[in-house]
Amino acid sequence: MLTTLRIRNLVTIEDLSVSFGPGLNVLTGETGAGKSILVDALDLAAGGRADSSLVRSGADRAVVEAAFRLDDDPSLARLLDERGVDAAGGEVVVRREIAASSGGRVLVNGSPVTVGVLREIGSLLVELHGQNEHQGLLDPERHLDLLDAFGGHADAAAQVAADHAAVVAAEERCSGLAALARDALRRAGELRAIAGEIRELDPQDGEVDRLRRDRAVLLNASRVAEILEEAIRKLDEGQEPAIGAVGAVERRVGELARIDPSMAPLLERLTSARLELQDARDTLRSYRDGIDFDPSRLESIEARRAALERLLLKWGPSEGDAVRAALEAERELGTLLDLDGETAAARRALEEARGAYAETARRLGVARREAAERLGPAVAAELHPLALGKAVFSVALPEARGLRIEHHGEPVTLSPRGAERAEFLLAANPGEPARPLVRAASGGELSRVMLALHVVLDRGAGRRSLVFDEVDAGVSGAVAVAVGARLARLAEMRQVLCVTHLPQVAAHADGHYHVSKRVASGRTHTAIAALEGEERVEDLARMLGGRQAGSAARNNAEELLAEAGRLGKGRGRR
Known about the structure:
By secondary structure, the chain is of the alpha+beta class. The protein has helices at residues 35-45, 74-82, 115-123, 140-151, 154-182, 184-201, 207-219, 221-236, 242-259, 264-290, 296-315, 319-337, 339-383, 437-440, 443-457, 477-491, 503-506, 533-545, 551-563; strands at residues 2-10, 13-19, 24-28, 61-69, 91-99, 104-108, 111-112, 126-129, 392-396, 403-407, 410-414, 423-427, 435-436, 465-469, 496-499, 511-520, 523-531. The strands form four sheets. The chain has a six-stranded antiparallel sheet, with helices on one face. A six-stranded mixed sheet has the order 8-14-15-3-16-17, sandwiched between helices. Strands 9-12-13 form a three-stranded antiparallel sheet.
């Protein structure tokens, strides 16, 4: 929901700040006062096209800042996270700067982003319906999702997407096996060679390191033997062996401990030291006795080490990696040897996947056609009181774009969204053909069609703020009341902002804002004021009876507010 909009140096606006609340917010004022500039500013904050001509004369840049309160919208939260925007505070603040010369800058919660990223984020925050620019419901890519939401087909559509993914996976499996078959003999030979080379050497975990160690010992055999003999001798042989010396000290301290018990811990340490030395001696003797110093072993060690290192260069870096490479080659070889069976199984799986897709897509198509038949009259019921009673709204369901497959002799289009597309059509006048919405009506008519569609399609709390710029163009009287009532109904589900010239529409607002302009020192200045109570009645009276509205106009204004349930109510924020 839009909470605050601040504009500086944009066209006739020098510095303006306004806060909005939930429900229906209307902007009123004389033609040319600057109401649409506020809508243009919001469009800029949502990623709309910028033009340096929008910068107020004499300023170096224009700045638009818009703050939005985040509702529970997982798609928006995910997009902000993916784009590196921190939204931990539950708010999105957009700052759009337009330079008078060239260039500009975009910040979202203080993080610089591109205009393209802003447009992505803005599409989830605001939906504009103006005289010359329309978003959201006019995009045919959204129509299928909207129809599914209206008909309650979300789960069925998700199942179609899952079945389509299964078909794609099965086709990839068949294609892969076909590629193997085309080159099966050559590939089988390669796999046998890979597995044979690795299995012949039979590398063991850590074997190369052990061979390198044995090689080093053999290359230094005489020095190793000399070190071992000297170490063993100093520990337990010769004139003053270390073990004997420590044992002698141990005996003396043992005698001392019997006299002075406080020396018992030292005795324990000496005993431990003697035992450690004895263990070291035994380990050295075992190592000496286990070493094979035969020089003839060096050649075989060197040959195996070199062979293993060559093998690991191709399939390593470890011996385990090489063994896994052999296993993978053997598995693929097994597939090749049973290629006919694998291919037959894959084709059966593909047919089963296609059959499942065809059935779910068929059921979804039936449900979509039924929903399309209901949606047309539902929208027509809303168009009639909006002075479009002769307009015919319909939903076309042309075939989806995608590969056509055969299932039980019938063609089926393979598409992740089902076998059909959807497009909303309108015949604005009797005798005219149904055409896509964007080409079927004038700006004001189109805005009213969008209003009717939102009333029918928006269920539950909406997340994006809706903006209508003069949705009431070309209507008056009872039609204007109907427009206001529908805007109010829509505003029960989501925030709505509306630029209007009609008091019948403005009377339904929760928040009423008057836009005005004045000339001072030869410059035009646009201002905005929040109206409540008598100020609001006076503004509606002026809209009804001109600048010099009398008591009759004021009485009429109060009647409009009463009929709309807004007399004595409403909120405005400056």
